[in-house]
Specification:
Blueprint lengths: L1 H5 L9 H15 L6 H25 L13 H31 L1 E2 L2 E2 L13 H22 L5 H10 L4 H26 L14 H23 L9 H16 L9 H10 L7 H23 L11 H23 L7 H16 L9 H8 L8 H26 L4 E4 L3 E4 L14 H22 L12 H19 L9 H15 L5 H22 L10 H4 L1
Antiparallel strand pairs: 1-2, 3-4
Helix pairs in contact: 4-5, 4-7, 5-9, 6-7, 6-8, 6-11, 7-10, 8-9, 8-11, 8-13, 9-12, 9-13, 10-11, 12-13, 12-15, 12-18, 13-17, 14-15, 14-16, 14-19, 15-18, 16-17, 16-19, 18-19
Length: 559
């Protein structure tokens, strides 16, 4: 994150030893250092100053770690500083990644011009988006146990809707978040002299960007609540990864539609920083984001009735978790698959899978794939009834269809994209469920079957079939293994028109295509290939897991 933010202006080293080592290497080759000695001393001084500033902030946010400060710094102040610092760094990092791109676009006779220019949030280097998520993850880990690492008024309001959080504390959180966002936005405006405009992408108007912001905020909030707010998993070690990865798919998918902000404070500050090119979209975005967060709070309450005086979660909650998870996964897939500017679909689906598995596995959900659900049923130690299994599969497929229709309607028939080997088409037809002409079903089928089997074997090996709904061990390993197995298949099969590995995604794709262009039915070829792969993976698991063959130590324990 620091390297991406600082590389354009000659910074990003963040380490005095790196700066000194670089100059020693340069001097060994050229006989002199690359800059004057005073500049090198300035760089070292700035880096050490940053480290000492971090010590001061650590004292403010963690006073109980120091005996002399334990009773003199109020807890409210520590939480306020934590929220201010978190959103400040995220917004400032975003500006440092996007604004240099604006300067490069405006080079005149070798010199950058610094007048405001309407470059939008959807246009940075796509790996820069991952860097924004990386700094978000580091902040969630470092400050999560101080204030909860909301860094977002929508998440604060969702938390208030579920808990007895005092309204005065809610006000402190939101005020600190807005103040931190403004500080970050005007810091990058002052540093670069330019600010990106907060506005929908080309061809999108009021409703579609707001829906993208609403659903993106919903995904981030439901993941946050499930991995950090939930009492049964609170204190786990994977919440930072889950929350940060939830933002990756959303920013990639919604970035070209709305900017992928998902935060009312950030939207307000970014809009104010670019007021010279227009102001006003922050209001519509904020309303959509808050609605999305409150819907996530409602979904959380439905999934965890025992936390609100109800019964323990059961098969119904598992089905709801699978439905929400499949909808979110297929929706993120669709937005990224239709994005004409960057090919981020595989990475977005993989990171979203990691976050959703971490979020819903405690509810005995997180399978997110009808093939894997069916493979579980083939396992002799599975206690779920056959009827419940097919109900869950029906929910997963229905959620995939709903997500496909949603992103199909969100895009409309006029979105033009170019994928694969340059085959141009309109709207969802650009990724219709058909193989491309130069490949055969045998070639496509081999990818689908092989990598679906690998995915199923991975999931069955890392996660046991039966688990207590309150048990929280292993979500990180399962989520990462699941997500990166998806990534392997996605990258291996994307050129052939294969690699979705999931019947819910395949069915959703075909329904999205059917909305405008007809030709429904290609998904059924993928469905049976993916189910065949899942059964092959289940068979391999039965062979490899020695516990089922009467041997004491199962292979899965080593994993």
């Amino acid at each position: 994150a620091g390297f991406y933010a600082g590389q354009v202006v000659g910074g990003g080293g963040l380490n005095p030893m790196m700066a000194v080592g670089k100059e020693i290497a340069y001097a060994a080759r050229h006989g002199h250092i690359s800059t004057d000695f005073n500049t090198l001393l300035t760089v070292l001084l700035v880096q050490f100053s940053g480290a000492f500033a971090a010590v001061g902030l650590f004292v403010l946010t963690h006073p109980k770690e120091f005996r002399m400060w334990a009773n003199s710094i109020p807890e409210t102040l520590s939480k306020a500083v934590s929220e201010f610092l978190g959103i400040f760094v995220v917004v400032f990092t975003t500006g440092c990644i996007v604004c240099p791109d604006m300067m490069r676009r405006k080079m005149v006779d070798g010199q950058p011009t610094l007048e405001p220019h309407p470059i939008y949030l959807d246009e940075p280097d796509y790996l820069g988006t991952f860097a924004i998520a990386a700094v978000y993850m580091s902040l969630v880990y470092s400050l999560g146990f101080v204030s909860g690492a909301h860094f977002n008024p929508a998440i604060t309001l969702a938390t208030k809707a579920l808990s007895g959080m005092d309204w005065n504390m809610v006000g402190v959180y939101i005020f600190s978040q807005i103040l931190g966002a403004f500080a970050g936005a005007f810091a990058y405006l002052g540093l670069y002299g330019v600010a990106f405009a907060l506005a929908p992408g080309a061809g999108f108007f009021w409703l579609r960007p707001c829906v993208a912001e609403l659903l993106g905020t919903f995904i981030i909030t439901i993941v946050y609540l499930s991995v950090h707010y939930c009492p049964s998993v609170r204190g786990n070690e994977y919440f930072g990864i889950a929350v940060a990865f939830a933002t990756v798919g959303g920013m990639y998918g919604a970035g070209w539609i709305s900017g992928g902000v998902f935060n009312p404070a950030s939207a307000l500050a970014m809009d104010a920083a670019s007021a010279a090119t227009g102001f006003g979209w922050c209001g519509a975005y904020a309303v959509a984001q808050i609605i999305g967060a409150l819907l996530a709070a409602l979904a959380y309450r439905v999934l965890h009735p025992h936390e609100f005086g109800g019964r323990a979660p059961g098969p119904r909650e598992e089905m709801i978790a699978e439905g929400i998870g499949c909808f979110c996964l297929v929706f993120v897939f669709g937005l990224n698959a239709l994005n004409p500017s960057v090919q981020t679909t595989v990475l977005a689906v993989a990171t979203t899978t990691v976050s959703l598995v971490c979020a819903f596995h405690a509810n005995r959900g997180g399978q997110l794939n009808p093939g894997i659900t069916l493979a579980y049923q083939c396992h002799p130690s599975c206690t779920r009834t056959t009827g419940d299994c097919f109900k869950i599969i029906g929910v997963q497929l229905s959620a995939g269809v709903a997500a496909g229709i949603t992103y199909g309607l969100l895009m409309g028939p006029t979105v033009v994209t170019d994928i694969g080997r340059g085959l141009a088409a309109l709207g969802p037809s650009s990724f219709a469920m058909k193989t491309e002409i130069i490949y055969t079903w045998g070639e496509v089928g081999s990818i689908e079957v092989l990598f679906t089997a690998l995915l199923t074997l991975t999931v069955l090996t890392v996660m046991p079939v039966s688990r207590d709904a309150e048990q929280s061990d292993g979500e990180a390993a399962l989520g990462l293994a699941y997500g990166f197995a998806m990534m392997a298949g996605g990258y291996a099969g994307r050129v052939l028109g294969a690699g979705s590995l999931n019947p819910a995604i395949s069915l959703g794709k075909d329904f999205a295509h059917q909305l405008y262009w007809g030709g429904f039915g290609g998904c059924f070829h993928y469905l049976w290939l993916q189910l065949l792969g899942a059964m092959l993976g289940a068979g391999l698991y039965l062979i490899f897991d020695k516990k089922l063959l009467g041997v004491e130590e199962p292979v899965s324990k080593g994993v």
